[in-house]
Each structure stands twice: as C-alpha cells, then as structure tokens.
Amino acid sequence: MRRSLGRGVAALDRAALSLRRWSWLIRSSTKAAMGTSFSSAAEGASVLSGGEEASAEFVKRHDAFIFDCDGVLWHGARGIEGAREAILSLRASGRKVLFVTNNSTKAREDYVQTFRERLDLEVRQEDVIAASWAAAAYLKQCSDPRASKPKIMLIGMSGLTKELSFAGYEVLGGPAFNGKTVEDLERELDFEHLDEDVGTVVTGLDKDLNYYKVAMAAAYVQKGCLFVASNTDATLPMKPNGTFGPGAGLSSAAVLNTAGRDAVDAVAGKPSALLGATVCETFGLDPSRYVARRGHGASWSMFRCRAGVLATMC
C-alpha cells in the first residue's frame, strides 16, 4: 500500500511539473505569435506561475482537465512544446483529459488523426469535444419538439454533416448545396412547400457559403424552425501573425439578418454556458458550481464534478 501511494504521489508531481513547464511555454509562444501577454487568472495562477508545491496541489484537487486546441496544444499545424508531455503526465496521474474546439469543419473522428500528426498523441474520438459534436449532442438532449424532427437544414461543412448524421438526422444542405445558384433558388424555394420534416436549422463555418444556402436556411427559420449555431465566432485565425478571416458567425449573422431575427435559439460551442451543460450531461458531471476566469489569451473555468472539480483551460 505504501509503495502504491508513493507511486501515486510521484505521478502527481510529474504531472504538476509538466503542466507548469507547458504553461510557461504557452505564455512564451503566445507572446511571440500574437504580441500579447498570457496572464493567468486567480484559479489558475498556481499552475501558470506558482511553485512546485502549489502546482502539485492544484493537480491533486482536480479530477479532469479540458484543454482548448488552437493556441494551447498547437499553433497552426505545429504542436506547442510541452503539450504532449503534460497530457501524458496528467493521464498517468489518473486524471481524465478531454479536448475542446470550436472548429465545426471537422468531426471528432477527424481529430484522432490531427492529434497524431501534430502531437504524436493517441486520443479517442470520445475525448474530443468539437463544436460539430456539441451541436448534435445538444439537439439529441433538447426537449424542444422541433429537435425531434428527422431532418436538419445545414449551413456548414463535412464535420457538422458527419456528426449530425451520426446522431441520426438526415442532413439537407451543407456541402450538397455548394454549387447552388440564384437561378436554382428561384426555381426551388417555395415558402408554402418547405419540407415539413425539417425541424432545425444549424449553422457553422462554411467556406463555400452562398446566396442559396442563406436564403434557404432563412426560409426555414422564418417558418419557425429551431435555430442552432455551432458557434458565433466573428473571426477565424488564419496565420500566427494575426491574420484573420470570417468565422462561423458569418453564417448565423447572414441567416438572422435575412430572417429578421435578433438572435439564434442556442449556441452549442464556446463560450456558451450551453456547452458546459452538454458536456456535464454527456460525461455525467454535476455543474452545481461554475466559475469562469479570463486572462489575455486564456480562461479558466471550473465545474464541480461528482468526485471533485473539473478544470478547464481554454
């Protein structure tokens, strides 16, 4: 028993050391890439800037960690030094490690290969919380009767198409509408004869967004369908030097403006509290306490779990 306890303490110490080193490297790489400081919040200060004892205590009193991907695990296609070691150390200490991303262009199964390529790390798709999955998971748990209808009108890419299909929905739109034209719209859009089996409109990042997609999705929203956005990020980082392009919010904003709506019914991804509720429901966590702390380039969120506290670094 004593030997087992000793191994457990050693694993905690290694996890704490790896997490401290990785946190320092994230701060350094973020400063270099974005020209901003990476300051920790009060709840995360013990890991980001505290001593070894405080770091070990921080790891000890948390049962699971959820990490963002872009800017935390990797910049572009390049893994951040120390990320792999920290994750492996946390796993070895018995902590559950999950990963969250607002990227709705990929399904969870796609991220398995991404982790191999960028971090040489094996992950299960069940451990990835992608915005595409979050949208599908929310709809399956949603009590709104519109979410139980079998078809979804989608503005989005293959990630959303896959996850919604995995959840049992028939997806209309998405990549299938990439080549649609205004002439097609004039022939095919009839407000009086929209598909009655469509209960929800879902929007996400769509790099092939076109007039047809926006008009068709807006027609279903005007008809009264549930409107769910995978996320409403206004911009998308294109390069580490600060170059940005339009984010998933472009799709939802276009549909809202066309349909004459002020807001979507639900946002499935970050930073919506709905994501925390969906994760807690799916993984059996108890969200009886939620505290968010934000710094420049980082935020810390806490969920109280059945066995302790879940720390989230995004």
UniProtKB/TrEMBL annotation:
Transmembrane segments: none
One Gene Ontology cellular component annotation held by this UniProt entry: cytoplasm
GO MF terms held by the record: phosphatase activity
Record-linked InterPro entries: HAD-like_sf, HAD-SF_hydro_IIA, HAD_sf
Domain of life: Eukaryota
Gene3D superfamilies membership: HAD superfamily/HAD-like (3.40.50.1000)
Coiled-coil features, chain-numbered ranges: none
Protein name as catalogued: Phosphoglycolate phosphatase
Organism listed in the record: Pinguiococcus pyrenoidosus
